[in-house]
Amino acid sequence: MNQGNERTTSMSKTKGLVQMAIFAALIVVLAFTPFIGYIPLGFTRATIIHIPVIMGSLMLGPKKGAALGGVFGLTSFINNTINPTLTSFVFTPFYSLGEYSGGIGSLIICFVPRILIGVVPFYVYRLVKKLSKNNGVSSVGLIVAGLSGALTNTLLVMNLIFVFFRNDYAAANGITVKAVYGFILSIIGINGIPEAIVAAVITLVLGKTLMKKGVQERLGV
Asked: What's the predicted TM-score (pTM) here?
């Protein structure tokens, strides 16, 4: 009996690792395929890598979602170290732009928001389902989960930049310190809002299929 339980537990762990590996592989492919995962905009990079993290959170749970967010953060760290843009110092302590350089704040900015992308959508989706008393796949829940995941990334990253690097970030972009938060808000509007809308749409489309009970059973989720 114990051997049977151990075998079942082992198979469950193996399935979980395989599922994690699939999502992680997708994140890595997006991250290191030019102009797909990270889209350079000069002053920053737009991204769609948060989408597999959001889906991983919804399908695999917040712990595995957080681990996938960590993979996202690692790809961002590597990209900003070996293929830097003007302000990559805010994402890696190993890149400097003249007198401006990263530090411990760079690691916090690079990893903490990305890890939370794998946590927040799971609980947002569950809350929406609970409030709407929906026993099936919630379209509204998927939309809100997609929005929340993308905005978690954008809002935390940009506000943490203000907390840790406002002076250097302002100087690197050729603006005054007084104007830096307005500049950050403009990036949130120009970059973050479209990212969130795209995330909501894709999360809805993928979630309506992948989160059906029959599909999840066949996937072993």
From this structure: 0.89
